Amino acid sequence: MNNRLQLVVVPATALLAACAPQGQDPRRQAGPNPWLPEPRQFLLPPMSVPKAIGWKAGESPHVPAGLKVQALATGLMHPRIVYGLPNGDILVVESNGPGTVPFRPKDYIQGPIKARGGAKAKGGNRITLLRDANGDGVPELRTVFIDHLHSPYGVVLVGDTFYVASTDALLAFPYTPGATSIPGKGLKIADLPAGPINHHWTKSLTASPDGSKLYVGVGSNSNITENGLDVEQGRAAIWEVDRATGAMRVFASGTRNPTNLAFEPTTHQLWAVVNERDEIGPDLVPDYLSSIRRGGFYGWPYSYWGQHVDVRVHPQMPNLVATAIKPDYALGSHVAALGVTFSAGQSLAPAFANGAFVGEHGSWDRWPLNGYKVVFVPFVNGHPNGMPVDVLTDFLGPDHKSVHGRPVGVALDRTGALLVADDVGNVVWRVSAAKARPTA
């Protein structure tokens, strides 16, 4: 994109953002029954992207009273996912998308503006290992665990096999407890949808509690099928992979971008955080946290939040829309939820003993901005119950025109501390109790 085009596009987009309707109180859209206004149509979607400025020495996000936050690792290359191994080692997936071919005029407009918020930072295409043997939040060892990957994202260990979901393939690596590196390219288990457009490049990954199945989240290849239905084959879906045979099948569909997956520990039910569609207003459509039913259809592209029809999609599919499942819990429109992990009996404080931590990367097409924090959704008897609670905040600058960092993946370490990947600050944050608790 040349400089002349940039000078034309950015002021025009700023003007559209200034004229766009403002979003309402995000709390109206938290929970099982969010407020859903009438959709709006735009020639170009309003865009509000704060400038990425990183963290200065001594700066950090904030936590509630009774907790403390510290940097577990700094100087990373676009960290996206954090994952704890059974021996206590922490893995950090450093990655960014491989790039995609601009397909429509709006791609040339949105790309440079999103880059302002750190979206185009160089990813490491590797997995880094951190070893914090005494659990004090200061790793004694930092080393490259697996290198030269192709835009990796989801990871999971099952027995002695470590799986990596790169942007175009599911890979398997042999793992020995305590190993600090794994050489080689890994064994390809399955191809994953990619291609020259590859609109949602991330592939989330988890394993069933018994380890027999893998689940891979694959996002759509567009906002709302504007790139054609032929490029959506196998996308906007959660796939189930049989570890014994390698057989794959769609477990659930209509999930526009299932960015992270986790099993609830008491019911062993699969849950996902899903990013919904854009460009119909600042308060549409809420991103969500939901249980995922086998064979379930969750609306995309034909409808949202159950049977609310998206009139932009042609042809319409009323029979399919009639089967669309309403998600369990709305997180708010455009929060861009990218991480989820359950507290699993490990807690920072009693208030966080039972529920899900969610990393919200933050909006790019809404004002006021939404997300840019980590929240906790309380659960009772395996289901969400109550409003989300802020856990890690103040990633945004005070004027909301700049951003220090953006949270992505979340995980728990062996002490019960919460780990948060920050892909703009290039940090992994560790949130723990202000007073030390017994190791879980």
Briefly summarize what is shown.
The protein has helices spanning 3-19, 105-115, 318-321, and strands spanning 51-52, 67-73, 79-84, 90-94, 126-131, 141-146, 154-158, 161-165, 169-174, 187-191, 203-207, 213-218, 237-242, 248-253, 258-263, 270-274, 286-291, 303-304, 308-309, 329-333, 337-342, 355-360, 373-380, 383-384, 389-392, 402-403, 407-412, 418-422, 427-433. With 440 residues, the protein is mainly beta.
Main traits of this protein?
mainly beta, Neuraminidase, four-stranded antiparallel beta sheet, globular
What does this entry look like structurally?
β7 (154-158) and β8 form a beta hairpin. This protein has a single domain (54-104, 121-433), classed as Neuraminidase (6 Propeller). It contains three helices and 29 strands. It has helices at 3-19, 105-115, 318-321, and strands spanning 51-52, 67-73, 79-84, 90-94, 126-131, 141-146, 154-158, 161-165, 169-174, 187-191, 203-207, 213-218, 237-242, 248-253, 258-263, 270-274, 286-291, 303-304, 308-309, 329-333, 337-342, 355-360, 373-380, 383-384, 389-392, 402-403, 407-412, 418-422, 427-433. The strands form eight sheets. Strands 21, 22, 23, 24 and 25 form a five-stranded antiparallel β-sheet that branches. Strands 2-29-28-27 form a four-stranded antiparallel β-sheet, with no helix packed on it. Mean pLDDT is 91; it is low at 1-18. With 440 residues, it is mainly beta. Helix content is 7%, strand content 34%. The termini are far apart.
